[in-house]
Amino acid sequence: MQNLKLTLTGLTFLSLATLAGCSFPGVYKIDIQQGNVVTQDMIDQLRPGMTRRQVRFIMGSPLITDTFHANRWDYLYSMQPGGGQRQQERVSLVFDDSDHLVGLAGDFKPGVTREQEIMGTSGQTAAPEASSPTDQPAQQPPQQPEDQPPAPGSVEEQIQQEIDRTQATPIPTPAPIDTQNE
């Protein structure tokens, strides 16, 4: 009889310990944020020809500085609401050989807010329609050979393939303010 009580008590505690690891309905789960928070306002402040120092002041330090692509900075941000699907945003900034910003690629477009993108309206500034160097697509910096490619099927290879598929978008330059007519 004593042995049966001990066995039942032990099984009860074992089952409670097992259930403690499971998620019960109504239990709060925290939001998990990782990486650099990048907003549309930050992207809108970027201009072609900005130095790396100016870009770092606006955007913060890049999450990834690839040794094989020294002229590219990558900003990644992921957010997983408690119990929800993970959402990820990425922005890659491309610099020329003289360390000036020439383009960007990723989930943000310069001058277009998320609401404008959803509604289909453009967020173009009142710049003249004349062709300028910023209207031309940014040239990709020459690819440097990789010493050791990532292992096939690895997360690093998937990230690298996603980054390599992106196209740089030129940053629009707003029209200068006319101060002569005031």
From TrEMBL:
<keyword id="KW-0564">Palmitate</keyword>
<dbReference type="InterPro" id="IPR007450">
    <property type="entry name" value="BamE_dom"/>
</dbReference>
<feature type="compositionally biased region" description="Low complexity">
    <location>
        <begin position="166"/>
        <end position="182"/>
    </location>
</feature>
<dbReference type="InterPro" id="IPR026592">
    <property type="entry name" value="BamE"/>
</dbReference>
<keyword id="KW-0732">Signal</keyword>
<keyword id="KW-0472">Membrane</keyword>
<keyword id="KW-0449">Lipoprotein</keyword>
<feature type="domain" description="Outer membrane protein assembly factor BamE">
    <location>
        <begin position="35"/>
        <end position="100"/>
    </location>
</feature>
<dbReference type="Pfam" id="PF04355">
    <property type="entry name" value="BamE"/>
</dbReference>
<feature type="compositionally biased region" description="Pro residues">
    <location>
        <begin position="139"/>
        <end position="152"/>
    </location>
</feature>
<keyword id="KW-0998">Cell outer membrane</keyword>
<feature type="region of interest" description="Disordered">
    <location>
        <begin position="120"/>
        <end position="182"/>
    </location>
</feature>
<dbReference type="InterPro" id="IPR037873">
    <property type="entry name" value="BamE-like"/>
</dbReference>
<comment type="subunit">
    <text>Part of the Bam complex.</text>
</comment>
<comment type="function">
    <text>Part of the outer membrane protein assembly complex, which is involved in assembly and insertion of beta-barrel proteins into the outer membrane.</text>
</comment>
<comment type="similarity">
    <text>Belongs to the BamE family.</text>
</comment>
<protein>
    <recommendedName>
        <fullName>Outer membrane protein assembly factor BamE</fullName>
    </recommendedName>
</protein>
